[in-house]
Specification:
Blueprint lengths: L3 H11 L20 H13 L10 E5 L5 E6 L52 H7 L10 E6 L3 H10 L3 E6 L6 H13 L2 E4 L6 E5 L16 H15 L17 H13 L10 E5 L5 E6 L31 H7 L10 E6 L3 H10 L3 E6 L6 H13 L2 E4 L6 E5 L1
Parallel strand pairs: 3-4, 4-5, 9-10, 10-11
Antiparallel strand pairs: 1-2, 1-3, 6-12, 7-8, 7-9
Helix pairs in contact: 2-7, 4-5, 9-10
Enzyme class: hydrolase
InterPro entries: APOBEC/CMP_deaminase_Zn-bd (IPR016192), CMP_dCMP_dom (IPR002125), Cytidine_deaminase-like (IPR016193), dCMP_deaminase-rel (IPR015517), Deoxycytidylate_deaminase_dom (IPR035105)
Protein name: dCMP deaminase
């Protein structure tokens, strides 16, 4: 490996005089999001997709190369209606389900909701969903980031999947049987448990002031679905969804808001002091299979190559060296391919990214802004996208701002 002096001399020679040690060079951005905060933020953000009105959780799995290979949140299994199955917690009574007031610790309380009238028999936890949603062959050796210490049911699944470390923020019930069982299982199973405190209390994501009023429609309970499964639920559980006092959460993120938020969050990892862009690739099952942000290629030092937008010559600027978010998302994919997928980006792709998007088989580009619409690069992109049959769709935010509170 070349020494720092050798690399410096190489750059000075090949770039026609750019000196990485020059005091006048443009430095990299320093307030980028640290890796652990980023992975935790993905878990917390994913929890905002959950319909659980009591406790919405998310989980994020990272492989040995630092790539996100699995994301999940609390919810019912695929195909099981959020409007029909019960959302009440097992610690609610029939009298206080209206207000969501629990009777925790009072096992002998009268009128406790029947087990089949609570979410517990049906809910698939975020940790399990993240493993099942994996876009790689396996998650062996990976790390899982979660807000809360996993339950014993999740611990069994985590161990069996081969994950070697759990990174969590809090354990609200360390003396519960579930937490004790989890610690036993993790210790015996060789899974490292790491409690961390994020370096910042919260993260804000701003999409701007445009709102899509249509995105909040359809948030009421689907009475057709409830009617469809009424007989089944009454027969098997004696549960009438029309009489349920705990509906699903109404302010969950739409798919578009969620995927665009992931791309915005990923942009916070970029060291570019002028422009931070992220990209998120989603398959037909609504699973995230690739994430990227703009930056220099692997192994190319953020401290050495130029970050400037202007310079004495082209080789003194960032443009010959930076890899754009779209390309990184495609190259960071953990699935076999991205054919038929959609890519979410803040800015309409340039012609160089468009070529890679088309060649990779992506069939839809969802973008927020078309700032450089009249440039030749964007004109070339539109020509190629239309010829290749790639759908272009401008994203209309369903919310102006998102706040992730750790």
């Amino acid at each position: 490996m070349a020494s720092s002096d050798q690399i410096r001399n190489l750059i000075i020679q090949e770039s026609k005089g750019y000196d990485p040690h020059s005091p006048t060079k443009v430095p990299k951005r320093t307030n980028y999001l640290p890796w652990d905060d980023y992975f935790l933020a993905v878990a917390y953000l994913s929890g905002k997709r959950s319909k659980d009105p009591m406790n919405s959780k998310g989980a994020c799995i990272v492989d040995t190369q630092g790539r996100i290979v699995g994301i999940g949140y609390d919810g019912f299994p695929r195909g099981c209606s959020d409007d029909c199955l019960p959302w009440a917690s097992s610690d609610l009574t029939e009298n206080n389900a209206d207000n969501g007031i629990g009777v925790e610790g009072d096992e002998n309380a009268e009128h406790v909701l029947p087990w089949l009238h609570t979410r517990e028999p049906y809910l698939c936890h975020a940790e399990i969903n993240a493993i099942l949603n994996k876009c790689s062959n396996d998650v062996v050796g990976g790390r899982m980031f979660v807000p809360d210490f996993p339950s014993n049911e999740c611990a069994k699944f985590i161990i069996q999947s081969g994950i070697h470390e759990i990174i969590y923020v809090k354990d609200n019930s360390p003396d519960s049987d579930s937490s004790r069982a989890s610690r036993i299982l993790f210790e015996v199973g060789g899974v490292k448990m790491t409690k961390i405190e994020p370096s910042i209390p919260s993260i804000s994501i701003s999409f701007g002031e445009s709102f899509d009023e249509q995105s909040t429609m359809g948030r009421k309970q689907d009475e057709k679905e409830m009617e469809r499964y009424l007989g089944l639920l009454m027969q098997e559980a004696k549960f009438n969804p029309f009489e349920s006092k705990v509906p699903k959460r109404a302010d969950y993120l739409s798919w578009d808001d969620y995927f665009m938020a992931i791309s915005f969050l990923s942009a916070m990892r970029s060291k570019d002091p002028n422009t931070q862009v992220g990209a998120c690739i989603v398959d037909s099952n609504k699973c995230i299979i690739g994430i990227g942000y703009n930056g220099f290629p692997r192994g190319c030092s953020d401290e050495t190559l130029p970050w400037a937008r202007n310079g004495d010559c082209e080789l003194h600027k960032k443009y010959p060296y930076v890899v754009h978010a779209e390309v990184n998302a495609i190259l960071n994919k953990c699935s076999a391919n991205v054919r038929g997928a959609s890519i979410y980006v803040a800015l309409f792709p340039c012609n160089e990214c468009s070529k890679v998007i088309i060649q990779s088989g992506i069939k839809e580009v969802v973008y927020l802004k078309d700032t450089y619409h009249d440039t030749e690069a964007c004109r070339a992109s539109r020509i190629m996208f239309q010829m290749a049959g790639v759908k272009l769709r401008q994203y209309l935010p369903g919310c102006g701002n998102l706040c992730i509170n750790f």
